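Q&A FORM
Asked by: J.P.
Topic: structure of Orexin receptor type 1

PROVIDED:
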Amino acid sequence: TPELSSFLKRCNLGMDNQMEAVYTLFLVTLLYIVPMVIIGIFYLIISHHLWNVRVPGSVVRNT
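REPLIED BY: S.T.
REPLY: Here is the structure written out as tokens.
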């Protein structure tokens, strides 16, 4: 409606399609892929540590 369009504003970055694709890829990498890789690395470190740690008070029998 014409009367509503005078109240609505839209901000554009003013980039061409290729630059917008690069910017989107950069954001996805920075905000999603990098944190997931960091979480995965720490998950592997913690699970490796827990898998190999000896339980306190456990008895080892030599047969």
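FOLLOW-UP: Helices lie at 2-5, 17-52.
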